[in-house]
Amino acid sequence: MIRRELSVLSRSSPAFSRAFSQCLARRREVLPTTSSPIVSKLDFFNSVSTKEKQIPTFRLLDGVGKPLEGAELPEIDEALAHRLYEHMQLLPTLDNILYNVQRQGKISFYYGEEATIIGSASALDMDDERSDGTLGQYREMGVLLWRGFSLDKVMAQCFGNEEDTSGKGRQMPVHFGSPEHHFHTISSPLATQIPQAAGVAYALRRTPSRRSRSIAACYFGEGAASEGDFHAGMMLASTIPSPVLYIARNNGFAISTPANEQYNGDGIASRGPGYGIDTIRVDGNDVLAVMTAVKEARRRCLEQGRAVLVEAMSYRVGHHSTSDDSFAYRARAEVEDRKRIDNPITRFRLFMESRGWWNADAEAELKARLKDDVLKSFRRAESLKRCELGELFTDVYGGEEPWNIREQRQELTGLLKKYGQAWEPWRKELSKFKNNGEDLLKRESS
Ligand SMILES: Cc1ncc(C[n+]2csc(CCOP(=O)(O)OP(=O)(O)O)c2C)c(N)n1
Ligand SMILES: [Mg+2]
């Protein structure tokens, strides 16, 4: 209002100087410096200057699954514990089998993670069409599985076959997406999901049926947090408030770059307060601690309509992906130690055993069943054809097909006519597609 007044007043008029001082006074009210206490002692601060100033890690179970003294466990019964454990076990089962599949050259690459993903998935809402939106980086397939995305769909996406509902075989493996499961499609460039999540949450806030009901949960690695998009996203979420829950998976590595080369501050959590965002650090290998922290973080998101940051600390025991050999940059013994000492699956299994909810027979039955399910799904996916070749050109843009796509389609059709059946490598490749590419030729002639 005052600004508008200023713009129409002559700069030399008394009315201008009155309005200008009012404007300055108004701005001073909101400047943070006006409420900051004044001190006469020179006191620089830094989140990593002393141990005491380090952000603590929230944990409920110790390394052998025993509740810490004074720990308040979340409400958990035997059925929920079984569901959490089965999903946690499913991830390494899938990893192992798909890792070998990749080695046989059947899919291009693959990778996975456990307590952080399943613990957080269980704390998000997935009850109806008003479920929380999820934006992942690539290790979050467990969230989809928790939400009922089937193993067949996982395999279909990894193989890019005709049943791939994520992208009709046009995406790299593990680039899942499913509107039905409120899971935004993964995109390869790191951190792009972070500002997008602020936008998704803002849209949720502006939708009356979703306001105060749904949040956007956004996952990313500590490596991705080095991207400018991380800061853009945090800034957006902080200045245009929206219920976005940022879950930073700090697993110590961004491929071969260790976390201590990614930042000199106190992890990712130290950045939250800089943006005025409620923040907590949690033990990412303690499924119950993750579940508890994410539940409370989600509640805060909804209550305040603002962003919350959770940093889940873990250690990436696997290679980064199937294209990586991590023993080229870290000691095998270090990895073996971490697997043994701080294994999220073992910790939770010991907790369940202490409650009388699990035993060796149940463990053997589960492992055999999961392996069987994964193998069945894998064999099925392997036997299916790819989508029709013409699908390559659909869904690229909305609306009418633009000239450049039409030109590319026509060029491929021309090549198909020339080499399709005449040249063995083309004939072989075409046989992998539904209708052997005939759909393109038919389209041309009709
Ligand atoms: C903008 C961009 N830079 C680099 C890459 C290559 N890249 C893919 S994954 C990755 C490491 C990411 O590490 P982190 O975010 O810690 O996730 P983690 O794999 O540890 O879960 C890199 C550098 C990329 N995909 N996008
Ligand atoms: Mg990482």
From TrEMBL:
GO annotation terms (biological process): branched-chain amino acid catabolic process
InterPro entries on file: Alpha-ketoacid_DH_E1_comp, DH_E1, THDP-binding
Cofactor: thiamine diphosphate
Record field: catalytic activity: N(6)-[(R)-lipoyl]-L-lysyl-[protein] + 3-methyl-2-oxobutanoate + H(+) = N(6)-[(R)-S(8)-2-methylpropanoyldihydrolipoyl]-L-lysyl-[protein] + CO2
GO molecular function: branched-chain 2-oxo acid dehydrogenase activity
Domain Dehydrogenase E1 component span(s) in chain numbering: 87-385
Keywords: Oxidoreductase, Thiamine pyrophosphate
Enzyme nomenclature, EC number: 1.2.4.4
A Pfam family this chain is assigned to: E1_dh
Reported function: The branched-chain alpha-keto dehydrogenase complex catalyzes the overall conversion of alpha-keto acids to acyl-CoA and CO(2). It contains multiple copies of three enzymatic components: branched-chain alpha-keto acid decarboxylase (E1), lipoamide acyltransferase (E2) and lipoamide dehydrogenase (E3).
Stated family: Belongs to the BCKDHA family.
Protein name: 2-oxoisovalerate dehydrogenase subunit alpha
Organism listed in the record: Gymnopilus dilepis
